[in-house]
Amino acid sequence: MTRDDPRKQLTDRAVTIEQARDLLGGTDAASMELSSRRTGMSFQRTRMSADRTLMSIIRTALSLIGFGFTIYQFFGHMLEVPGSGLRPHAPRNFGVALVALGMVLLTLGIVYHVRYMQQLRAERQLMIGEGLIHGESHYPISLTLITAGLLWLLGLMAIVSMTFNVAPFA
Fold first, then answer.
1. In whole angstroms, how large is the CA radius of gyration of the chain?
2. What is the SS3 string spanning 35-80?
3. Using CA atoms, how far apart are residues 170 and 159, in angstroms rounded to an integer?
4. pLDDT for the residue 65
5. Do 158 and 101 contact (CB within 8 A), yes or no?
6. What is the pLDDT of residues 101-127, one digit of tens each?
7. Is the pTM of the predicted complex or chain greater than 0.90?
8. Contact assessment for residue 15 and residue 85, using Cβ atoms and an 8 Å cutoff
């Protein structure tokens, strides 16, 4: 492991339950147990907070993707109106740009979420290994992350449909 490896950094700063007792002046077992449970619950709260952050990114990306596709559809029909001053590819280009911006935002949000969750899991596993917290509850895969992935695929299908004028959205 390199010096910049987050697991090495976590291992270097971790303390055992006995070291924690010594640092805190020999606290009783009940206090240590309660502290351990509160720390374990804080990991769950942090995980849910990361999910809420991804949900806000999903909302913004969905707005961009939906608005881009709406612009494409609406102004695409406006091209058929006689006397409209729109260039033929303007609605498509602007719509694709908005959908692409939504997908870039969503991609960055997914990457950030996955990396953050990996670091959180690594720290949690280290604390479980040291006996500082209980590892009874598991970290299920995030339904928010699955939703973000499905939205990303939907955005990709929208771009393909808009660019090449093919199904399912043509």
1. 24
2. HHHHHHHHHHHHHHHHHHHHHHHHHHHHHHHHHHHHHHHHHHHHCC
3. 11
4. 96
5. no
6. 999 999 999 999 999 999 999 999 888
7. no
8. no
